[in-house]
Amino acid sequence: MTSMIARSRWLMPWIKLFQGQDIKQQSNILLKSLGIPFLAFIIFLFLWDVAAKSVVTSLGQVPGPAQVWQQAGGLWQIYEDEKTKEKAFYQRQNERNEARMAKDPNYEPRVREYRGRVTFIDQIITSLYTVFTGFLLAVSIAIPLGIATGLSKTLNTALNPIIQIFKPVSPLAWLPIVTMVVSAVYVSDDPWFEKSFVTSAITVTLCCLWPTLINTAVGVANISEDLINVSKVLRLNWFTKVRKVVLPSALPMMFTGMRLSLGVGWMVLIAAEMLAQNPGLGKFVWDEFQNGSSDSLGRIMVAVITIGFIGFILDSLMLMLQRWVSWEQADK
């Protein structure tokens, strides 16, 4: 954790500033790293507000920053109200069961799940859960396959045409196929997961696969011959060579692929949820579009900003993880 903090460029100036080290220099660093982006953000909000006032759609005027902020507060209030209702529901249920058990000790209490309104926050959680599931599935397949492909020219020659054919396929093309296959194969009276979740997760997996696979294979294939020769001199077995030589050397490229995969997966998931009407942020956007109320545009803007903000956080977390586990500093 200490190493991670030490490598955080945005955090170190604050730490040094509070410690009283090079106050002028640290202030200049903070001004450049935070002040300039903040000024650009203010200019962006001003231009957005001016442009929004001049555009009127069938649903009303395009919302400016203030209206979007108001809608964000309204969505949060809906979430708070639902949590209050949920808490009251379970409290009433517990009281009712306790009262019946007091009258009849043999009574088996019934516990029913609260099925209230799906809120914006619930949709965010659903989308994050789905994208991480699809991403982890993709990484668990792509990294071993990428290592094997990078170490074996024969395997690389065999798989390269397949990778090049399927890599550019749009997620919207995968979605109908995945939906039909899941509907045909995933049949159970008591399924562990909803079909909509499985469909979205597999679609994300298929689209996340290629950046990690290709970057891992390229990173492994470009390992210095000297390092490979050292592993031969030391007579390392295949697994030890991968663990001691291949993984540390190819780690930067692997993380580059994973960052790309996570970004692609997040974009693909939103599109898949919109098209298939699976639970998540994409469905929320589409439902608001179909709703057509005066608040819809503002809520859609909230969702768009949230999608972008979450994408930025996911990429930043991957970069921090890369700097933490990698032996060399990431440039970006």
Automatic annotation (TrEMBL):
Protein topology in the membrane: Multi-pass membrane protein
One cellular component (GO) term of this entry: plasma membrane
Species in which this protein is naturally found: Bermanella marisrubri
Name this polypeptide is given: ABC-type nitrate/sulfonate/bicarbonate transport system, permease component
Similarity comment text for this entry: Belongs to the binding-protein-dependent transport system permease family.
Main location: membrane
Alphabetical list of InterPro entries matching this protein: MetI-like, MetI-like_sf
Keyword Membrane: yes
ABC transmembrane type-1 domain segment(s): 124-318
Matching Pfam families: BPD_transp_1
